[in-house]
Write a structure and sequence with these properties.
Structural class: alpha/beta
Number of domains: 2
Largest sheet: 6 strands, mixed
Strand order of the largest sheet: 4-5-3-6-7-8
Radius of gyration: 28 Å
CATH superfamily of the largest domain: P-loop containing nucleotide triphosphate hydrolases
Number of strands: 8
Order of helices and strands: EEHHHHHHHEHEEHEEEHHHH
Distance between the termini: 27 Å
CATH topology of the largest domain: Rossmann fold
CATH class of the largest domain: Alpha Beta
CATH architecture of the largest domain: 3-Layer(aba) Sandwich
Helix content: 40-55%
Shape: flat
Length: 393
């Protein structure tokens, strides 16, 4: 550069190890015009600097011990958060909530392993009780129960992060697209009087009770010889099976059995076209279980829509709102904890028979927990995680 001024700004110096990455860092605070930013970037490049790769600063922070892998994932989720629930969950994880939990598991495994190793290494010592390995049974059992509880709640954390799937299913012309449009507050799906208009899945992203929700309007369920419509019906049934909540829409004036076989506990059966049929006489064509919520509405007039939205939102909140404790939020977390628990389950019956085998199982559990923290060589996982960060983070 020729020494010509680029801008007047501030230079913030952050010496190691107190910076985000743990390295010496300098931050230029400049005016935000494209010309100023480009001029400074050109000057820095000319001086030998380069543009950071996506996620490089966070990766350096991880490699320098400023945060573990779960905290880095929490930061990534915080950057991507669209809802309040996602923000709360991501911030809790970024601040070390999940780290504290798996460290308590690791401490428990290490304590149990120390007891077992004591029996193996010092079998003839008078001060080492013969039943030492058996004393590890209760703490290991407690660990498996705590991990089981975390695994049971893992779906909640993953759904908060990725979004809850709601599938609207039913026979053709039951009003699925009209209800979808009512929920979306816009014309998201095409509505016509012709049966079979919706042939592919129409997705609408919404927020219910502070949680991200994806509502899927699906093809009408019926027997069809039309190849394209049949494929749409196959996709509709597959989406219903995969969904977290199913809403079966029935035409109260012409009820059908289509889709009843797909309902599960906690789902909804909605009787549409209440403006055409008195609700006391409009009952589902088959008896439903008590844990299926049945509601009347009219997609045409809007009557009952608000009540349906409220009930659906309450169900989403009750089932998926983040708990007070940091939980598992990714399939990777679930896999690591599941392998740790399975190793502990194998160790329990071996305690009194072959403590050395129980010790091997506990070491396998420790390995799985180390993978959760990112303390083992899982370079491919690192690449996948950090590549999703924005450039400069």
């Amino acid at each position: 550069m020729d020494g010509t001024p680029i801008d007047e700004g501030l230079l913030l110096w952050m010496p190691a190890p107190h910076s985000f990455t743990g390295e010496d860092c300098a931050e230029f605070q400049i005016h935000g015009s494209p010309a100023v930013a480009e001029g400074l970037a050109n000057a820095l490049n000319a001086a030998g600097a380069r543009q950071a790769e996506a996620g490089e600063f966070t990766r350096r922070a991880f490699l320098n011990g400023k945060l573990d892998l779960t905290e880095a994932e929490g930061l990534a989720d915080l950057i991507d958060a669209d809802t309040e629930a996602q923000r709360v969950q991501a911030l809790r994880q970024m601040q070390g909530g999940l780290k504290a939990r798996y460290e308590s598991w690791r401490d428990g495994v290490l304590d149990a392993l120390a007891q077992i190793e004591g029996e193996i290494d010092f079998p003839d010592e008078a001060d080492i009780p013969d039943d030492l390995a058996h004393k590890a049974f209760a703490p290991i059992k407690a660990l498996t129960e705590d991990m089981s509880a975390a695994l049971e709640r893992a779906e909640r954390g993953e759904r908060v992060r990725a979004g809850i799937e709601i599938a609207i299913i039913g026979a053709p012309n039951a009003g699925k697209s009209s209800v979808t449009n009512r929920l979306a507050g816009r014309e998201a799906a095409i509505v016509t009087a012709q049966a079979g208009t919706t042939r592919d899945i129409v997705e609408v992203n919404l927020v219910m009770g502070g949680l991200a929700v994806r509502v899927s309007d699906t093809a009408g369920l019926r027997e069809s010889l039309d190849v394209i419509e049949a494929e749409g019906i196959r996709r509709a049934r597959a989406r219903a099976v995969e969904a977290d909540i199913r809403v079966l829409l029935l035409d109260a004036s012409q009820p059908s059995n289509e889709g009843l076989d797909l309902l599960r506990a906690g789902d909804f059966c909605v009787l549409n076209k209440s403006d055409l049929t008195p609700m006391p006489q409009a009952t589902p064509p088959l008896a439903l279980e008590d844990n299926i919520q049945t509601l009347p509405l009219s997609a045409q007039t809007g009557d009952g829509i608000e009540n349906f939205q409220d009930k659906l939102s309450q169900t989403v909140q009750a089932r998926y709102s983040p708990g007070r404790e940091a939980g598992l939020t990714r399939a990777r977390h679930r896999d690591c904890v599941l392998r740790a628990k399975e190793a502990l389950d194998r160790a329990l019956p071996a305690l009194g028979i072959a403590p050395e085998l129980a010790g091997d199982d506990l070491r396998a559990a420790l390995q799985a927990l180390r993978e959760l923290a990112g303390e083992t060589d899982i370079e491919a996982v690192f690449d996948r995680i950090f590549s999703r960060f924005c450039v400069g983070k």
